[in-house]
Amino acid sequence: MQRIEPQCGVAFQLHEKQLLTVTDLEGEQVADLVAFNAADIGECLSSGRSIDYANTIYLTTGNILYSNRSRALLTIVADDVGRHDFLLTPCSPETFQIIYGNCEYHPSCFENLAMSLKQFGIAGDFIPTTFNIFMNVVISPNGALDIQPPLSRMRDKIVFRAEMDLIIGLTACSAEMTNNYRFKPIGYEISE
Ligand SMILES: [Zn+2]
Fold first, then answer.
1. Measured in angstroms, how far is the CA atom of residue 142 from the centroid of ligand 1?
2. Which domain holds residue 99?
3. Which of 9, 94, 150, 179 is 20 to 30 Å apart from 106, CA to CA?
């Protein structure tokens, strides 16, 4: 198993039919995931399309993550937790300034994704809403969002199957509240 250190990120290729397992090594740690068509990076993960076709905002086992061209990128084939977020963007330097009023440098998923995806020719402007694995956003009837600690415990995992050749970006999220105020590593593994 590969390990993403706290507040870090990686990018790698995932071939069609390969499985990607993402493991919460210690519990209560979010991992932001993004996917691009390896043959054409203009095609990328679409939160809106995926929610449209799943008809739920809580995607889990059996649901498909679609692209902006409405093609299947990844299928969730196993899920120990069943609660992930697909509404919010990856935390970015501006997130910490705008929401938290933090003007000092702060590591972020967006920056980690942008730096990791650069080797594949993918610029930050192309990074869409991420699938935020294990992120627990509770929605009030009036629409208010409440970020609560992840429901994931030590060694909980989610497994995706690639439906085409992909470039994947993956982080160990850098936002305090999202991760119950402790930054932990994330594990991932590619298998046939
Ligand atoms: Zn983050």
1. 25
2. 2-191
3. 150
